[in-house]
Amino acid sequence: MKITILAGDQLSPIYTETITSTEVHNQTNATTETTDTTSQFQNTLDQKLDQINAGGAANELSSIRQILKDNGATEQEPIQVPASLEPIFREAAETYGVDEGLLIAMAKQESNFNTSSVSSAGAVGVMQLMPGTAAGLGVTNSYDPYQNIMAGAKLLSRNIEKYKGNVSLALAAYSAGCGAVAKYDGIPPYTETQNHIPKVLSYYARGYVTDSGSTQKMPAASTVASLITQYHSTKGSATGTASADLNASQKSSLSNLLMQSSSLLLQEQLVQNS
Questions:
Q1: What CA–CA distance (Å, rounded) separates 87 from 82?
Q2: What does the alpha-carbon distance between residue 29 and residue 154 come to, in Å, rounded to a whole number?
Q3: What is this structure's pTM?
Q4: What is the DSSP letter of 211?
Q5: Catalytic residue (one of 17, 91, 110, 192)
Q6: Known catalytic residue at 161
Q7: Residue 42: which of 6, 17, 22, 23 has the closest Cα?
């Protein structure tokens, strides 16, 4: 007798096993008995089901990743941070209790690690500090990467504390100011700010490596998942507003963010099942 396990609406076979009968000859009374190997099959079946269940999450993630790829999402390499700047980011993160990877993601988005960068609005340096903000944070030279990064970390730390751990609001305030966040009671509808947060989160999910290759770090999948959930539930987010139409920048950043997060989850799942 053959038994096949089917799964899904398409009823595709995922496991087939044949139950056989075994003839056992009893030499004592010269009779032949037939023994059904059902119990053996049941043991094999249980083992197979355990394997299927263990791989279920990985299979689902693989399907999600394929959908994202079909819609233009790409899996990207870790951000390359200058080896000369990474120790500063590390010190700033430790000093102000913020995630080093988040600081690096912000710097990537703000200036691409260009210490001489000046925006059209007058923001300066690696973390793009406005002159008034820099002065208020004690910065005497915004082009000095140490002063700039330390001040940026201090400002981000203040924002995260102000918004009770909501990183999306902290990033919004960093980009548009606390006044704008208060005015809209959430993420302001400014295009620059709306594009800023998904990009930073997408960069964060990629992790980072120094250009010398001496340091590399990937974020925990659970942390990335929490940030995505938090962003979605924050008032004013592109994904949390039903009537909002995502622009091209948001679509690209959010698709890549989901691709990166699914990659992290898949890696963790495979490690757990190995």
A1: 10
A2: 90
A3: 0.76
A4: T
A5: 110
A6: no
A7: 17
